[in-house]
Amino acid sequence: MKIRILDRRTLEEVSRKPFNQNTMLISISDFKKQIPCLENIPDYCLFLHFDDLNVPESRPAIHETDSSYFSRKFSWFQAQKIAGFVKKYLYEVDDIICQCEYGVSRSAAVAAAISEYTEGCGKDIFNDLKYHPNPGVYTMTLAALEQDNMSRKYPMPDVKL
Hints:
By secondary structure, the protein is of the alpha/beta class. The protein is 35% helix and 16% strand. It starts with a strand and ends in a 16-residue tail after the last helix.
């Protein structure tokens, strides 16, 4: 299985040609931003919206009642959506594309979590200097994937980051 990490512009360019059969797309757009404009659609698609926000300490000063911050942030519900989607189609796909606006943080985190879950090599993405995986997205997505270890495609040793 091949996992690719793309930015929005590259995904839109790639979609000008048909995708390989059995391709999965996990597309992450900024909060309230349109999904990518795709000319061709992969067989399996999940579209999510959340901003690249980290722990609350890094957020700008806002009122605790400002619900837009919390709706823009990655959530456990979204992690479970990713995990359920991946587990449902894992045995049917040959390629997985993880895409976010710049292809650096959110999509890299999701790709790292999937890679760690399936093959035990998620650290490779963290060690690649062109990516800066969002640690919150990675941790939550991997935890959601590991909720049911019985559906793991490949055995994975315990690895600590």
